[in-house]
Amino acid sequence: MSDITEPPIARVDVVRETLHGITLEDPYRWMETEGEEFHHWLDGQARHAREHLDALPHRAGLLTRIRELGSALTQYFGLAMTADKVFALVREPDARVPVLTVTEADGASRLLFDPATVPGDGHHAIDWYVPSPDGRHVACAVSDSGSENSSIHVIDADSGALLDTIPPTTRFAFLSWLEDSRSFVYHRYAEQHRLDSRSFLHQLGADPAQDTVVLARGLNPHIELTPRDRPFLVVPPHGEWMLAIISHGALSPWPWTSEQLSDCTIYVAPRAGLADPATCPWRKVAGVVDGVTTFATSHDTLYLVSYRDAPRSRVLAVPLAAPDLSRARVVVPAGERAVESVRVVGDRLLVRDLDGGVSRVRHVPLSGGEPADLPMPVDGAILEWTTHPTRPEALLLVAGWTDAPRLYRYDGQSLQDTELAPRSPVDFGDVHVRTLHVPARDGTPIPLTVIHHKDLELDGDNPAMLTGYGSHGFIDLPEFRPEMLAWYERGGVYAVAHLRGGGAYGREWHEAGRGERKEATITDFIDCAEHLIALGYTRPGRLAAEGASSGGIPTGGALVRRPDLWAAMAMHVPTVNATRNEFSESGPINVPEFGSVTTEEGLRDLLIIDAYLRVRDGVPYPAVLLTTGLRDARVPPWQPAKLAARLQAGTASGRPVLLRVEEHGWHGAGSTRDQEQALLADVLAFILHASDGS
């Protein structure tokens, strides 16, 4: 690999600032302007990384095998039911991106919308979609190159004809059709920034520029909004009521629009209030302190999952006409399981639980009674579920670490396999999955899922990759990835640490790794790594870590605290310069989760997770692969770029520090199959080379 060009050296221009008596030194602050100098440097880094990765001895073979495995299974997800139709996003083995399909009552399926037909540079992908109540129309959000900055295309579900287009300023699937199936409410940002976003009412055929504002700061005296808040309007498919969900912080992406909420305020009002949004009689139901994470409605009742006075959450019910939370009825009391979500199905309430990282389901009559368990087909994850708006029916997509997704139908009594999702031809029969409970340094048991070939010898000489996230209450659900068989076939170990700060045990697990307690997220990750070594799965010279987005916190934290522990580190679009995060486009919405430099407490919290500021000169850091997408608005390219520059300048190990740049890429969503497979081949080849030197 001696012919590979050297990476360009970044100019050092130290910015010193003192905040709350603490002096910070930032040598690459200039990168944040993303000017011509930065992009020239970034181009050089991209060329260097590409040359290095393409020259890795295992890369070509891994890519061939990954493509073979990834092209064997048709993927179904993004399910929705309405009228006599079932909609789904489908990715065929040879397709770059998923397409939208519809299955009619007679069982016949057809292609409804292919995002490849949208004109423009790069590729386009479907971010989310919502069918109308009568099944005649579909509002489909499409973005270019995975940007998640969606335009809304309204499609005729019978002919596939394009009826309407709303320009790109929308995010999040908080779109609700009204009863006429000719109008809907939706959320969008201002064209130039993410402050003072608003929700609108759109009529099919009308000019989107003339859409009526229905929720906005200063519009209605009953609803308080700050510039950072996002006001979402939800109109359920039945009843006479509607909800306003005011998000004060970061939200999880589609399809869980009514799930995994955090830092939200909820209001209720009659639907008739849409006639005059300025005087609509909104009534507050719950605030941030009430800890509502999920909601569902019947005709006259609002069901809320709340962690207030219940660390693993419980289910409450209040009348929509008089939503007094202090007098709420407890439908499902708190227990050992963490309540994730609820859905109304006919005369029953479906309750989705998390039991140490494994999904469980209970159902309970709306009229009251004891929740009863539904037998699950596998010990895995409910990847998604959807209910029919008028029939007592639900669809659940269920998968495990070694079990391909299967689609089950709930009829009010039990789960039955629909046989709609194809069975995987990739054989995982020789792959073993085990869940360990690692004693953290404070004694807390941390769940750790370990996956490998069943004949693996625990001789301490296996290449291993440890991953974790540990923020936003995110749950590391079992995920079937047939391409990972290429890793297991080579004797690789894959381990998932269910860190504090995530959601493995509900809100209490999230709070245990949040704010001033964020150090636990990082030390949990380190403790899991040391446990793998102690049990003989691997050793420091063969152990690698991987993390994406906020997963850059445990990986970056472990990199700078214990560089001796790792052969390699792979960090995808990572948050690594937390003290500067709130000054980026999407940074302000993450303040409730991570903190703000405007307060001493917030600054100290951010310094815990700022890996960039902890890099020191002369330290022998492991091999590091950082990735970024040029169009990433969630974690801008300067975040991983600054860490790459600092590590390249400071490391004493002589090991490579690469910055892999995806020209037509954002934060990961909407990537093509080729992009996903190429990235995985790069990561596995990089780790193998770092761990065995071949």
Strand content: 25-35%
Order of strands side by side in the largest beta sheet? 31-32-34-33-35-36-37-38
**Secondary-structure content class:** alpha+beta
Residue windows where pLDDT falls under 50 for at least 5 positions: none
The chain-level mean pLDDT equals 92
Measured as a percent range, the helix fraction is: 10-25%
**Structure summary, number of beta strands:** 38
What characterizes the major β-sheet? 8 strands, mixed
User: Distance between the terminal alpha carbons, to the nearest Å?
Assistant: 11 Å
Number of helices: 10
Radius of gyration: 25 Å
Principal-axes geometry comes out as globular
Report on this model:
The chain contains 10 helices and 38 strands. The strands form 9 sheets. It has an 8-stranded mixed β-sheet with strand order 31-32-34-33-35-36-37-38, with helices on both faces. A 4-stranded antiparallel β-sheet has the order 3-4-5-6, with no helix packed on it. The chain is globular, with a radius of gyration of 25 Å. The model has no long low-confidence stretch (mean pLDDT 92).
Write the layout of secondary structure elements.
Blueprint: E1 15-19, E2 22-26, H1 36-54, H2 59-70, E3 75-82, E4 85-91, E5 99-103, E6 109-113, E7 124-131, E8 137-144, E9 150-156, E10 162-170, E11 176-177, E12 183-188, E13 198-203, E14 212-215, E15 230-234, E16 241-247, E17 264-270, E18 283-286, E19 292-297, E20 301-306, E21 314-319, E22 329-332, E23 338-345, E24 348-355, E25 358-365, E26 372-374, E27 381-387, E28 394-399, E29 406-410, E30 415-417, E31 431-439, E32 445-453, E33 464-468, H3 485-488, E34 493-497, H4 507-511, H5 519-534, E35 543-548, H6 552-561, E36 568-572, H7 591-594, H8 600-609, E37 623-629, H9 638-650, E38 657-662, H10 673-692
Parallel strand pairs: 33-34, 33-35, 35-36, 36-37, 37-38
Antiparallel strand pairs: 1-2, 3-4, 4-5, 5-6, 7-8, 8-9, 9-10, 11-12, 12-13, 13-14, 15-16, 16-17, 17-18, 19-20, 20-21, 21-22, 23-24, 24-25, 25-26, 27-28, 28-29, 29-30, 31-32, 32-34
Helix pairs in contact: 2-10, 5-6
